[in-house]
């Protein structure tokens, strides 16, 4: 591998290294769990971007991360976000507030 390419790869990956993160689980949140997966990692990124990692994929979690998702290759959170049939509007999603509260404590 060319030295310049190696340095570039390190620089590109360093934004995630040491980023504040927390593992959250369905067991921890119980009925308030809003995702189709049983466990995820919330991660604070540079510039206020928050991502969620689950099953080997990275999903945008907040608007800033959504804006960078295409460029970064991040998946759409809605792919794993549960619909809330009790809300009364088709397509409405389950409240993601409990996860947002957790990540806001983390990203300070």
Radius of gyration: 16 Å
What structural category arises from helix and sheet content? alpha+beta
User: How much helicity do the residues have?
Assistant: 25-40%
Task: Order the strands across the largest sheet as they lie in space.
Answer: 1-2-3-4
Order of helices and strands: HEHEEEHH
Strand percent estimate: 15-25%
| Number of alpha- plus pi-helical segments | 4
Count of individual domains: 1
Overall spatial form? globular
What does this structure look like?
32% of the residues lie in helices and 19% in strands. It has one domain (20-106). By secondary structure, the chain is an alpha+beta fold. A hairpin with a 2-residue loop joins β3 (50-54) and β4. The chain has helices at 3-13, 26-29, 63-72, 97-106, and strands at residues 21-25, 39-44, 50-54, 57-60.
Summarize the structure.
The chain is an alpha+beta fold and 108 residues long.
Key structural traits:
globular; 4-stranded antiparallel β-sheet; single chain; 32% helix; 108 residues; disordered N terminus; alpha+beta; 4 strands
């Amino acid at each position: 591998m060319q030295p310049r390419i190696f340095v570039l790869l390190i620089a590109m990956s360093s934004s995630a290294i040491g980023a504040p993160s927390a593992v959250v689980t369905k067991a921890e949140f119980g009925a308030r769990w809003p995702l189709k997966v049983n466990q995820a990692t919330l991660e604070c990124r540079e510039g206020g971007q928050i991502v969620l990692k689950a099953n080997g994929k990275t999903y945008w979690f907040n608007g800033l991360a959504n804006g960078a998702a295409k460029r970064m290759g991040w998946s759409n959170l809605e792919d794993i976000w549960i619909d809330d049939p009790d809300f009364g509007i088709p397509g409405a999603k389950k409240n993601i507030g409990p996860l947002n509260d957790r990540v806001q404590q983390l990203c300070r």
